[in-house]
């Protein structure tokens, strides 16, 4: 991949901010519960402090996505990092608060504001990626997810080490300051995009969810984050039978996250170059399902729980996570544009908000459901819940692929040698264009989008089609318009000399 200097700088600063941000939102896990118990808080109360973070991200992300174009992605990005950094530092001062209820109340308030900053940062970063890397969305998205994944892995380890060195305040002060400094760096480095108005009427997150392909991508995100939350809440009790030391137990939590961080760029490269995103999604659902069958293992597997089998299951889970999360963002973006959404920052913001929101929803549901199931029936039977929802999503996506391949609604037809002169010559000779002679490549959008290879690299390759917005003339202005045998009722024809490409765009 050949990136410009601007693209490399954008990738670098967002990666650093991603890494620091992930550490800040995850570093308190090893020691906050203990501090909260010293103040008289119950497990339910400090559990709510963790859970409310994802709930707030779920609620506010669609708002950020819908108003991203008016706010500006750079402003939203930097504002989110500043907010998260300041809240991290303030969270480190909570040990100075006396009293049970003041401690919990301030914890919740700071955590809510921190979640709002985190949602702003993530939504803006995804939109900037889509804007700056239009031809490599999946690869760059996956690369930055690697930084974020590494931050989530390193966060509890760094937090625990700094807590041991300097007490409760030191981890938050150090990492909050680091994130604040990264925000200053991005302020001078990130490119500035033109601001506009809010998303046009009808182009809301609900409008995108009405598209079947986007709804399936959102479902994939939800079940994937549910699987992550499921293990966060139940893996430690499940492994107590082995009497593991804290260090080894911590490493067990790193296995799936580390595998995800390492495999995400590979999945992104495959989505961009070789495999359709929905196919990658199906592969991911199967990997997660098989992985959870081994972690337990499943009740129908006649073996006892063992460390070796559990580790294999966690590795497969990490591979499946990478496949689903990377493919879902790319798929939702391509599919929404293929269904007529504008190929601009507004749509990028909507899909970014959708991804962030649905991931947070799954992260909120996962631990809640897993706790109830674990208390009721134990880990091995309850793990079948994750297996079941992934197999259902994979089956529906597979069925969707088969149906859309049978009834492709749009094809792209290109001939490097056909221009206006050739078009008229062809029509005068036979009355119609000879399709068999003029087509050099036909690619359907059964998998979400048609990519036009003949465009220059600097132009966005995503083609809005299958919509009245993609016609050469608006329908209301097309009365009486006729081009030989063609009229607006059956489609439009646009003959261009640029690259010699001729397109026939059918109206759905």
Secondary structure blueprint with pairings:
Layout: H1 5-26, H2 32-38, H3 43-71, H4 73-91, H5 100-132, H6 137-166, H7 169-189, H8 205-209, H9 212-239, H10 246-273, H11 277-295, H12 307-338, H13 345-377, H14 379-406, E1 411-414, H15 420-430, H16 435-438, E2 441-444, E3 482-483, E4 486-487, E5 492-495, E6 502-505
Antiparallel strand pairs: 1-2, 3-4, 5-6
Helix pairs in contact: 1-4, 1-5, 1-6, 1-7, 3-5, 3-13, 4-5, 4-7, 5-13, 6-7, 6-10, 6-12, 9-11, 9-12, 9-13, 9-14, 10-12, 11-12, 11-14, 12-13, 13-14
CATH superfamily of the largest domain: MFS general substrate transporter like domains
Could you give a short account of the major beta sheet? 2 strands, antiparallel
Q: How are the strands of the biggest sheet laid out side by side?
A: 1-2
CATH top level of the largest domain is Mainly Alpha
- Secondary-structure element pattern, one letter each: HHHHHHHHHHHHHHEHHEEEEE
How large, in whole angstroms, is the Cα Rg?
A: 25 Å
Share of helix among residues? 55-70%
Taken from the alpha-carbon principal axes, the silhouette is globular
The CATH architecture of the largest domain would be: Up-down Bundle
CATH topology of the largest domain: Growth Hormone, Chain: A
Number of domains: 3
- Give the low-confidence spans: 197-202, 407-508
Number of helices: 16
First-last Cα distance: 36 Å
